[in-house]
Amino acid sequence: MYASIATAFYIAGILCAIEAVMNTRTAQGATAWSVSLVSFPFVAVPAYLVFGRNKFEGMQETYAARKDEIDGLLEKYETEMSPWRVAIGTGEPWYRALQSISGLWQTRANRVDLLVNGERTFDSILEGIAGAREYILFQFYMIHDDELGRRVQSALIERARAGVRVLVLYDEVGSKGLTAAYLEELRQAGVQVSSFKPTQGWRNRFQINFRNHRKMVVVDGRVGWVGGHNVGDEYLGKDPEFSPWRDTHVRIEGPAAQQLQRVILWDWYWATRQIPEVSWQPVPAPESDTRAMILATGPNERLETASLFFVSALSGAQQRIWITAPYFVPDDAVMKALQLAALRGVDVRILTTGKGDSLPVYLAAFDYIYRLRGLGIRFYAYRPGFLHQKVVLVDDRISAVGTHNFDNRSFRLNFEVTAIVVDEGFAGKMETMFVQDFEHAELIDPEALDQKPFWWRLGVQVSRLASPVL
Question: Is residue 132 classed as helix, strand or coil in its secondary structure?
């Protein structure tokens, strides 16, 4: 019996090695997987089934199952959005490429409000929920059954009992501690609840390394929220270990809220195979003409949309690139874009957390900081508490606020979403926020990392090697 099991593992290792050679993204990854699978199949085969997959399967088949119906809705959506589109020729250099790969457009007639930290963010979201008249689309990577979670639950239940349709979607891994009682209370009140269910379909049962990392709310198709916050007390600064928690969200009113709605509904359709009835009529924000668009990326895409956007935006920078990245583990393309920007004389500043919630990810960042030394790039470690926001400011016009971290997981393994705002007034508010954050941070000297103890430098290198799956 043992001989048969061993033979089966070695055969599986060879088959998986062939698959890795054919499909792994990089030559280094293909080599590492194939050698491990053939040499140590008892460990490598289970690991490869979970971590080796780099494309999320099944969404195309799901779409094909109701293609005519979905195409009809998309046609209606495109028609309704057409008056609010920003023409390709009037956008930034990266806009044409981004529109081609994402299928979404910059829109005008939006109002975008910057929401700094948890109290302001959830006060805004809860106020929006209370004002819902038709429906609420509520999707978060992480929902906790704690004080904030129960406040949110009560608000959603109140609206559901008032006749508002409420949909709640969460990620199984991010919300692994969410209690059955919490979910049942929502369902009893008429709230429709689902997890993302990445493993649907017999071929997809090992898709457990993918996460839906998005955090979004849409009310009545008119107003939306997106950013770095999850639903948990720590995001209000109530975790003694990580307090004060530093994070950022945005509130979007206008046609871009319809783009956010489209993202949520596609995730909901994957999870439930249901197509909810919603309004597809964009409503312009009163007395505001901010340009904005929603960038949704995921491992189901043929191209690496997130990395391509950031590389393009960074490559076009003329004056500054300011980035906040709690998990700074960029890929080679982003590294080169940062190096070239610094060599062009662009003011490049990278703010990361001084207190990590994951030691391997925290340590891995120092390898990339060290490799960017000597170029004039300034690195900062935020000191008061844990910094979790994911924001970018390019020059005096382009801002990004969302869920993307600067790491392999966000670029290739997670479903992510970011609001891109093209507006000088909003960029000015972002600048003020950055300056205040820099004042609460300490400069990191990359050259001084050479003086760290051997065990620390070894930990950095081991963490870097593991960073693609962290």
Answer: coil
